[in-house]
Amino acid sequence: MPATELSGALDAWKAGIDAHRPDDVAAVFTEDAVFQGLKPYTVGRAGVAAYYDSQPPGMTVDYRVMREKQLGKVVLGWVEADFHFTDGRDPVEVNLTVVLIGGRITHYHVSRRV
User: Fold this and answer.
1) pTM score
2) What residue numbers bound the domain in which 47 lies?
3) How far apart, in whole angstroms, are the C-alpha atoms of residue 9 and residue 26?
4) Please, are residues 6 and 100 in contact by the beta-carbon 8 Å criterion?
C-alpha cells in the first residue's frame, strides 16, 4: 500500500515512541494540537512530550489505519493501535482518531478498544 500523509505522520509517531524520544513524538504534532491520551487532555507539543516522557522505557506501538479520509487540506484518520510493554503486562489496545493539517497531527483522541 502506498504511503499517505497519515501513514507518514504515524510512522514518525511510532518511531519516536519505540525509541522513547518524546520530543520526536511531539514534533509530529502542531504547536496547538489538542491531545487526549488515556490521561487528562493537554494542548500543545510540550504536553505531548510530557505525556510520552512519562511512559515506561521499552514501550512500543503497532498501528493499523482502518479508515482515512481527505477533506481538502484536512486528513481524518481512524486507527487501531496496540501499545506493548517489556514488564510483562498485557498490551493496551486503543482506537485513535487523528486529524492532520499540513502533515502534522492537530487533534488526537484515544479510547480503549473493547
Assistant:
1) 0.94
2) 5-112
3) 11
4) yes
**Cα separation of 71 and 51, whole Å?**
29
What does the DSSP 8-state code read for residue 3? -
Q: What is the pLDDT of residues 57-71, one digit of tens each?
A: 999 999 999 999 999
Give the C-alpha separation, 51 to 69, whole Å. 27
Name which of 37, 13, 29 is nearest 105 in CA terms. 29
Q: Which residue has the cell 496547538?
A: 32
Closest CA to 33 of 103, 111, 113: 103
Count of domains observed in the chain: 1
CATH of the domain at 81: 3.10.450.50
The set of cell numbers assigned to 50 is: 510530557
Q: Which three cell numbers stand for residue 27?
A: 514534533
Q: Which of 20, 42, 39, 38 is nearest to 30 (CA)?
A: 42
How many whole angstroms separate alpha carbon 102 and alpha carbon 112? Answer: 27
Residue 60 identity:
T
